[in-house]
Amino acid sequence: MTFASLGLKEPILRGVRDVGYETPTEIQAHAIPKILRGQDLIGLGQTGSGKTAAFGLPILHRLCDGPPGLRALIVVPTRELCVQVAENLRLYAAHAGLHV
Predict the structure, then answer these.
(1) Which of 71, 43, 54 is nearest to 16 (CA)?
(2) Model pLDDT, residue 55
(3) Which residues, 6 or more positions from 85, have their beta carbon under 8 angstroms from its beta carbon?
């Protein structure tokens, strides 16, 4: 399985390649297709299991080529986690013309 086989748009795939990801983790492989189909999802995983990408990549995918402006809000429990999530999403969105 690859990130491309999950159906992500090319600008997002370029960001994924830039950070060195080659194959999706278990949570990514299960979550990304469901989120792309518009299904609701609750996912649990240990630190380092790939949750940020599992939820963030489909969000970025859906925002590609859309109108400018605030279109997504991610709520996290701590400032440190907010900074971490934002940094990761900026890397994934680097080629998509999106601002995080």
Answers:
(1) 54
(2) 96
(3) 52, 56, 74, 76
Q: What is the pLDDT of residues 18-55, one digit of tens each?
A: 999 999 999 999 999 999 999 999 999 999 999 999 99
**86 to each of 34, 81, 90, how far by Cα in Å?**
22, 8, 6
Torsion from C-alpha of 6, 3, 27, 89, nearest 10 degrees = -110
Burial 11-22 (b: 16+ CB within 10 A, else e): bbbebbeeeebe
Pairwise CA distance, residues 6 & 29, whole Å: 7
Q: What HEC string does the chain produce? A: CCCHHHCCCHHHHHHHHHCCCCCCCHHHHHHHHHHHCCCCCCCCCCCCCCHHHHHHHHHHHHHCCCCCCCCCCCCCCCHHHHHHHHHHHHHHCCCCCCCC
